[in-house]
Amino acid sequence: MTAPPRLADLIRTEWQAPLPDPAAALVRALRDHGGDNVAAVLFYGSNLRSGDVEGVLDFYVLLDRLTPWRDSRSLAAATHLLPPSVEYWEVPWQGHVLRAKVAVMGIGQFAAANRFGGWDTTIWARFAQPVLLAHARDAAATGRVLAAVAQAVSTAGRWAALLGPAQGTARDYWEALFMATYAAELRVEKAARGVSLVDHAADRYTALLVPAWQAAGITCEEKAGGILLPLMGQTERTRGVRAWARRRLFGKGLNVARLVKAAFTFQGGVDYLLWKLHRHSGMRLELTPWQRRHPVLSAPGILWKLKRMGAIR
Question: Which regions of the chain are under pLDDT 50?
Fold first, then answer.
């Protein structure tokens, strides 16, 4: 079999795609806010996959230090304990309002979260999907993020080999992987959502799998019809399935913990929920200044008002 290209080279090539103008405007706002403390900004998610820049765009901001971002030691401590912290941004642009959901964490935390041995499956699973490096402060930051994203893809590929079929196409392995990661999170989408993720960039995932295995130290045989056979023993697979079962159980609790944390730390969360309400129901809900300052305490009253408006049943 011809030697596959290096994983990092494939990711670097992906990053050469142009950044849409609205996304670039949001990145400038994030950089202006964080200054030189912003090591890198990553653009990812459904808008990147679809090319649609309406709705809410998704970014990760990777910082050298957590405290200066919001000048808050308590928020920095919460982010250090349970990364990332999430914010909702609205930025005026050419007579429109651009919207973004921004996840914030340390660049060192990001690198650690993508390693194979970690318990949190959410971050490496997210960054095994298409992503653009929207900003890097310098060559050193670029190198750190490139290594971390390559590690995310390698980690995903290794789990795909452990959880997927004994042999199959690259698509078979990626679909098995994403179905497993969706099942390990609290999501409204069904686990079958993993199939549609691969549909968006099937050729990309095919090109990445063998280099990801190579980076993970897994050799494979390639058979006719694109069938791949990772050379793993049954004992290794059995251990992998058991290890994943523990991570799936841990992942549910981690999602609950993040939801509780978000209730107290989601910057702009009230505006995000009000926008979602208007987008999906056409209804507008006006909140008092007290309700905005104390969203958790005012939640029962807000829910009651939404019920009376017919927004929830």
Answer: 1, 188-189, 191, 278, 280
- Domain-by-domain residue ranges, the chain? 7-267, 268-313
CATH code for the structural domain at 7-267: 3.30.460.10
Alpha-carbon distance 258 to 121, whole Å?
A: 14
Its pTM stands at: 0.85
d(CA 130, CA 43): 9
| Helix locations, the chain, DSSP H | 7-14, 21-34, 46-50, 67-70, 73-81, 107-113, 122-127, 139-163, 170-183, 193-200, 202-215, 234-265, 269-281, 289-293, 295-309
Instruction: Give the C-alpha distances (Å, rounded to integers) separating 225 from 168, 169, 177.
Output: 9, 8, 21
For residues 268 and 265, give the distance between their C-alpha atoms in angstroms, rounded to a whole number. 9
pLDDT at 1: 45
* Rounded CA separation 245/242 (Å): 5
Helix, strand, or coil here: 6? Answer: coil
Q: Write down how long the chain is.
A: 313
HSE at residue 305, side-chain half, CA atoms within 13 A, is: 14
| pLDDT tens digits along 152-211 | 999 999 999 999 999 999 999 999 999 999 888 865 445 455 567 899 899 999 999 999
